[in-house]
Amino acid sequence: MKPSFYAFLAFSGLATAAYGHTPLASSTPADKASVAAPVKELALQFGGDVRLTAVALVDASGAKKAVDELPTAVAAKFSLAIRDELAPGDYTVTWRAVGADTHVISGEIHFTVTPQRSH
Prior knowledge:
14% of the residues lie in helices and 50% in strands. By secondary structure, the protein is mainly beta. The longest helix has 17 residues, at 3-19. The N and C termini lie far apart (73 Å). 12% of the residues are buried.
């Protein structure tokens, strides 16, 4: 076989590996969303099963907000209760997970809490 064939196979394998990671499919609150107070839960939905290894929620000043302990189960969807009351303002969620392919994936979600709407 020609060397170019081996290069093609190597490149094809790298492309498959690069696209094999399990992405974050959605979140609640969604990235860049504005949500009315109170915000009581954080939900992360992945494109496949992962083991969630870290989640942190901070306000605009960097102060950490308490959320439930990380679940130990491997799953595609996680819901964590937010234990602290979130005042109106900007928040960032950072997360990290390990996919079935053993690759670590991570990301951030930014959202804004708006004052509670009156009825």
